[in-house]
Target: Plasma membrane ascorbate-dependent reductase CYBRD1
Amino acid sequence: MENYRLFLSAFCAAAITGSLSIIFVLIWVLHYREGLAWDGGSAEFNWHPVLMVAGLIFLQGTAIIIFRLPWTWACNKQVMKWIHACLHLLAFTLTVISTVAVFDFHNTAKIPNMYSLHSWLGIAAVILYCLQIVVGVVLYLIPITPVSWRAAFMPVHVFFGTLLFVGIISVALMGITEKLIFALKSPKYSQSPPEALFVNVLGVLLVAFGAIVVYTVTRVSWKRPNDQVLHSLHTDEVGEDNGKVGPALTQLPETADAEASDVRKRSSKQDENN
Ligand code: HEM
Ligand code: HEM
Model:
C-alpha cells in the first residue's frame, strides 16, 4: 500500500475521533442531561443524539472505510460486501429507533413534528439512506444483477454514499446547536457554560471524524487492489474465489508490492466494477 504510515495515522485518528464522539455524547446525556429511558420524556429524547452518533455517523463511517483496510484485502470480496451491507443495516436500525424516540418525545410533550430545517434535512437523509441500502443490496448483494449494471452504478453509489455521510454530519451539527439553544437557559448558550463548551467539542470531533473518513475513501491509491490481479500475482491463475489469495499487499515482499501497486493503478477501473 502506498504511504502505509499515513494510512495508519488516518485510521488511528478515525478510530480515536469516532470513539471519542460516542463517549462525549454519552457523557452529555448521562452527566449533563436527564440520562436515558423510554418514558416519553427528555430521557427518551436523549436516545436520539446517542443512536444517531453511534449508528448513522460512527457505524456508517466504519462501513464506508471497510474496503480500504489492507488487513481485509486477503478476504473474499463477497464477505467484505456482506460486512459493508450489515454495518449499514445495523446503522439504519439504530437510526429508526432514534427517530421513533424523538417523534414519541414530541408527541408526548405535544411539540409539533417536522417544523425545523434540521428535521427536514434529517428525515430526507434517513429516507435516502434507506434507498441507498435497498439499491446497494439489489445491485451488489443479489447475484442476478448484470455485471454491466453494477459497473455503471458504482460511481453513483460511491458519490451518493459519500454525499450522504457528509450531509448527515451537517444535520447532526444543526441538531446539536438547536438542542443547546433550547436546553441551556440559565446560564444561556451564549454565556458558554461548561456543557456548551463540552458539546461544542463533540461537534468538532464529528467534523474531524467525517473529514478523515472522506479523505481515506477518496484516495485512489488506498483502494482495495483488484482481486483477480492480486490472485494472479500469487497463483498465476485467475479465479473467482479470492478467499484463497495469500497475504495482503502489506505482507508481500517489496518487489511484489511495487508490482501489485503498478498493476493496481492500471486496473483501478476494473476494480471499481466488482
Ligand atoms: C429532531 C433527524 C441528529 C437534535 C429530529 C427530527 C428528525 C431528526 C427527523 C424530527 C423529529 C420530529 O419532528 O418529531 C436527525 C438525523 C440526525 C440527527 C438524521 C443525524 C445525525 C441529531 C443530533 C442532535 C439532534 C446529534 C443533538 C441533540 C434534535 C432535536 C430535535 C430533533 C433537538 C427536535 C427539534 C426538531 O424537530 O428540530 N432529528 N437528527 N439531532 N433532533 Fe435530530
Ligand atoms: C463501496 C457507501 C450500502 C456495496 C462504497 C463506498 C461508499 C459506500 C462511500 C466507497 C468505498 C471505497 O471506495 O472504498 C454506501 C452507503 C450505503 C451502502 C452510504 C448505505 C446507505 C451498500 C450495500 C451494498 C454495497 C447495501 C451491498 C453489498 C458496495 C460495494 C462497494 C461499495 C460492492 C465497492 C467497494 C470497492 O470495490 O471498492 N459504498 N454503501 N453498499 N459499496 Fe456501498
In short: The CA atoms of residues 4 and 186 lie 50 Å apart. The chain is about 75% helix and 0% strand. The chain has two domains: 4-224, 226-274. Residues 227-273 have pLDDT under 50 and may be disordered.
